[in-house]
Amino acid sequence: MILLQQNNVNPAIFTLSEKTTIVNPYYLFEFISQDTNISKIFTAADISTSKARYNEFNIELTTGAEDLLNGVVNLPLKGFYDYKIYSQANETNLDLFNVSELVEVGRIYIEDTATPIKEVYDAGQKTKTVYNG
C-alpha cells in the first residue's frame, strides 16, 4: 500500500517496467475512491534513475488547481483509493480507451496533514443527585 499526504509532493515508487511491453512508455494513473467510486485520471513523469528496477513519480496532492498532465491532483477526500496504472505511447493522453495495457493495480491511503478541530460537548448536567434509600 502506498501512503500519500494532502498538500504535499509525494514520491511514489512502483514496479511497472517488468509488466510493460511497449518501448519508451508513459504511464496513466487512475485513482478510484473507495467511498464514492469516483475516479481521477492523470499522468506524471517517471523520474527514476533505474527504470529497469523501479519507477518513481512525484504525485502532488493539492486543494487548489490541478495539472493532470504533471501529477498535480485534487483529491479532497482522505481515505482509501484503489489505483490502476496503465502504460501508453502518448504522454498527454487522459483517456482510458487509448491506453496500451494495465500494468499494476493496488491500494493507496491518503492522509490529511491538517490537525482536526476537537469539539467537546460541555452542556450536560453538572450536579450529582444522591438518593438515600
Salient structural properties:
133 residues; mainly beta; Immunoglobulin-like; 0% helix
Distance between the termini: 60 Å
- Counted up, domains total 1
Number of strands: 8
Assign the CATH architecture: Sandwich
Which band does the percent of strand residues land in? 35-45%
| Coarse shape | elongated
In CATH terms, the superfamily is: Immunoglobulins
| Uncertain residue segments | none
Question: What's the helical proportion of residues?
Answer: under 10%
Q: Calculate Rg over CA atoms.
A: 21 Å
Secondary structure class reads mainly beta
Output mean pLDDT.
Answer: 90
What fold name stands as the CATH topology?
Immunoglobulin-like
Query: What topology, given as strand order, has the largest sheet?
Result: 1-8-7-3-4
Question: Overview of this structure, please?
Answer:
The chain has 133 residues and is mainly beta. A hairpin with a 5-residue loop joins strand 3 and strand 4. The chain contains no helices and 8 strands. The protein has a 5-stranded mixed beta sheet with strand order 1-8-7-3-4, with no helix packed on it. The mean pLDDT is 90. The protein has one domain: Immunoglobulin-like (Sandwich), CATH 2.60.40.
Strand and helix layout:
Blueprint: E1 2-5, E2 8-14, E3 26-33, E4 39-43, E5 55-61, E6 72-73, E7 79-88, E8 101-111
Short description:
The protein is mainly beta and about 130 residues long. It contains no helices and 8 strands. A 5-stranded mixed sheet has the order 1-8-7-3-4, with no helix packed on it.
